[in-house]
Amino acid sequence: MDSTSDIAIGQVVKSKAGRDKGRIFLVLNIIDDKYVSIVDGDLRKLENPKTKKAKHLDVYNTVVPELKYKLDDMKILNDAFIRKILEPFN
């Protein structure tokens, strides 16, 4: 996958390249047709998301639809919420 056309905000992804290889993340933002911002609530927190190329990600079928709504209200969205969502995948 070389583009972000199949990736949605709130989608669960796994890094397949780089020093974070094998870690599970959540897509926070789609930057353009090649890059996304990802967080895991642990090493990559909401204040400092990682920008990663889409071709370096394995995309899971799971999408967290509540993430779009919680992005509007950052008080509800926190790193503990992200970790709780990703816990079954680790």
TrEMBL record:
SUPFAM superfamilies: Translation proteins SH3-like domain. It comes from the Bacteria. GO terms for cellular component: ribonucleoprotein complex; ribosome. Keywords: Ribonucleoprotein, Ribosomal protein. CDD domains: KOW_RPL14. This is 50S ribosomal protein L14e. It comes from Tissierella creatinophila DSM 6911. The lineage of its organism: Bacteria, Bacillati, Bacillota, Tissierellia, Tissierellales.
